[in-house]
TrEMBL record:
Belongs to the peptidase A24 family. GO terms for molecular function: hydrolase activity. It holds the Pfam family Peptidase_A24. PANTHER family: PREPILIN LEADER PEPTIDASE_N-METHYLTRANSFERASE-RELATED, TYPE 4 PREPILIN-LIKE PROTEINS LEADER PEPTIDE-PROCESSING ENZYME. This is Prepilin peptidase.
Length: 281
């Protein structure tokens, strides 16, 4: 791959800087989600996002950056209920600008085929980081994060479809990519649902609800990416589990969240295309 340094570094730098304030809000979101290990007969919903000190609910609308409903929380990280500081996740705060920068660099240096569009990439970077850190910490992929991402992602993928027209490209709208993206969404949701249906203990219901979103993104470049991305997900999570077991830090019964591997593999496919295409032969 030829790599022109300056044109790739500049968008990466600009998006990194734009990612810093976005990352601040991501870091604030993460500690609002607590672990949820219900008894087998408990069908109650998981706890809403709330202050870890006093359990004051911090409602979804208040999370949206810039809304004045909980300005103290966004500005100083203080709970609107008890005014105590809620320690943000530094991992999420820095992973967002790094993900944004990666998206900018790859977009600028990558091939000229119709991309999914930078707004869709940035949404993926943001939501992907928050979900990865939350799932790694408390083994949850909260509905309040996953479900609103669907309509927004569909809207931005729709924008990506018509972006070539807006940019004056002769290629016309990327209808082919839109079709494979929607097919990827349906196929991956069905595949994870089937795995869950066959063996519910092997997979979280949250993973099933996330799968369609990832299928949408991975399917943009073709259905091969959905297959390879899914293979990569299970390969990496198995390798991680075996490494933990070899180090004596896990047993066969240890629950390892799948979400971070699903999101990581999807990000690789979205940025670099189908990894199977890079294999020799
Ligand atoms: Zn509080």
């Amino acid at each position: 791959m030829s790599f022109d340094v300056i044109p790739a570094v500049l968008p990466a730098l600009i998006l990194f800087l734009a990612g810093v304030p976005a990352g601040r809000t991501a870091g604030r979101l993460v500690p609002l989600f607590a672990r949820h290990d219900p008894a087998p007969d408990d069908d109650g919903p998981p706890p809403p996002p709330r202050c870890p000190h006093c359990a004051t609910e911090i409602a979804f609308s208040r999370w949206l950056p810039g809304l004045p409903l909980a300005p103290g929380f966004w500005r100083h990280g203080r709970c609107p209920g008890c005014a105590r500081e809620i320690r943000p996740s530094a991992t999420a705060a820095w992973a967002v600008p790094v993900a944004f920068a990666l998206a900018g660099a790859v977009l600028a240096a990558g091939p000229a085929e119709p991309g999914i569009g930078i707004p869709a990439l940035l949404l993926f970077g943001y939501v992907g980081v928050v979900l990865t850190v939350v799932d790694a910490r408390v083994h949850r992929l909260p509905d309040v994060l996953v479900l609103p991402a669907y309509p927004v992602a569909l809207l931005l993928v729709g924008y990506g479809t018509f972006e070539p027209v807006l940019l004056g490209s002769a290629a016309g709208p990327a209808y082919g990519n839109l079709v494979t993206a929607l097919a990827g969404m349906a196929a991956l949701a069905a595949f994870y649902w089937l795995l869950w249906f066959i063996y519910p203990a092997g997979m979280g219901w949250g993973d099933v609800k996330l799968a369609g979103l990832l299928g949408l993104y991975m399917g943009w470049g073709g259905l091969g990416g959905v297959v390879s991305g899914t293979f990569l997900t299970f390969l990496c999570s198995a390798a991680f589990g075996l490494t933990l077991m070899a180090a004596g830090r896990a047993t066969r019964k240890t629950q390892i969240p799948l979400g971070p591997f699903m999101l990581g593999a999807a990000f690789v496919v979205v940025l670099f295309g189908d990894p199977a295409a890079l294999l020799p032969g």
